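Bumping with the actual sequence this time:
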Amino acid sequence: MKLLDRHYTVRSVDWADRYQRIRDALNVGPDGYVIHEAAEWHPYRREWLFFPRKISTEPFDEAVDERERGANTLIIASEDFSQIRTLEVGQRIPERGISSFKILPGHPNECVGLKSVEIGDRTESYLFCFNLDGEVLQDDIFIGDYKCEGLEIL
């Protein structure tokens, strides 16, 4: 992981142990993998939130990955990663994975997120809303035939 201070100095921090704890919580085993595109620090709960795009217990295979490895599992980790829990958010759609999410200002238990599809030349983006109890507040809304790389709330 990289840390950027207020003077724009970049410092590397080894998070291998933290990522291994996430892998263990997801039970992916030694051959599996987790692809992260979406992570947030929750300042009020003092927890790390990870919403992996892809989760697999099997070795990486691009064709299978594109069609079948989309995830709907939110990972909630304590500040020091000593406690990690997982939470299923809605129904898993195998070709869709989370590419970004943000905590809604003024609603610290609610989030808005993006799901992406990338299969060959086919790309799609969807918007959805959920809370940190795993409840879907707004089902997927199709945005367009392109991949939104991120979500920001201004």
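The tokens above came from a reply further down the thread. The mean pLDDT is 96.
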